Amino acid sequence: MKRFVLILIILVLAAGAGFYFIRDPGTADIALLGWELQTSALGLLALIIVGFIVLAIIWRVISAVLKLPSLWRRRSARQKQQAADEQVLRAWAELERGRFSVAEKLARARLNEASLPPLNYVIAADALMAQDETAATLSLLDEVRTSFPRFADFLSLHIANRFRQQKNLAPALELLQSLAAAHPKDEAIVCAFAETLFEAADWEKLRTLMPALRRLKWSGLTEQDVQRYDRAVYGGLIQEAARHK
């Protein structure tokens, strides 16, 4: 918009000057490096305008030439990013086919060039867990905590839920306990922690979590779930007390 207004002002001034000099052209003598040119004032104005246009074109050409390396770099970066994104789609496809080692390698191969690296980490983590590589999965999570700390808790919850589905309860409990301490009011974390404690039959810890569960107002936790936890806690604690008599 500013450029349009500037061009409009220049055109108006040029038209006004042209109208003035048509009535009284005047004369203009130009001497430069031994060359002499005699013209009218209107011709001088035309030369100035043409010179300005030529200088503007030259400036544009020089500017474009100077920017070519950066343009090439950006184009190369876009091409690399596109290739990395296509590779993560291949990794996801291999994960769905059950070729877990291939999926994990593809997901981690071009992390620095991908447009959404957290997605690569999710696919790699799922592939590792499908191979029962618990230590490697936790190592991957540590890498995410360093590279993408704001995403690490989401991936940690995802991994903990997958561990619970695989009945790999010890690392799931460790992750969820840390998450619950950091986010005590997060409904998804508290409910996942409660369900994992229930499956691990850790009645004492589940008992300490019951007040928080009763306060939760979340569609993912029903009254029947709370009652189920209550009955399990009381029944489990009674059985433990009976065994220790």
Indicate the structural class. Answer: mainly alpha
Number of helices: 10
Number of strands: 2
- Percentage beta strand: under 5%
Q: Are there runs of 5+ residues with pLDDT below 50, and where?
A: none
Instruction: Summarize the amount of helix as a percent range.
Output: over 70%
Determine Rg (CA atoms, Å). Answer: 36 Å
Average pLDDT, rounded to a whole number, is 84
Largest sheet: 2 strands, antiparallel
Topology:
Blueprint: H1 2-23, E1 28-32, E2 35-39, H2 41-97, H3 100-109, H4 117-130, H5 134-147, H6 149-165, H7 169-182, H8 187-200, H9 203-215, H10 223-243
Antiparallel strand pairs: 1-2
What does this structure look like?
The protein is mostly helical and 245 residues long. Among the domains are: 81-168; 183-245, no CATH class. The protein is 80% helix and 4% strand. It is built from ten helices and two strands, in the order H-E-E-H-H-H-H-H-H-H-H-H. The protein has helices spanning 2-23, 41-97, 100-109, 117-130, 134-147, 149-165, 169-182, 187-200, 203-215, 223-243, and strands spanning 28-32, 35-39. It has a two-stranded antiparallel ribbon with strand order 1-2. Strand 1 and strand 2 (35-39) form a beta hairpin. It is elongated and about 120 Å long. It starts with a helix and ends with a helix. The mean pLDDT is 84.
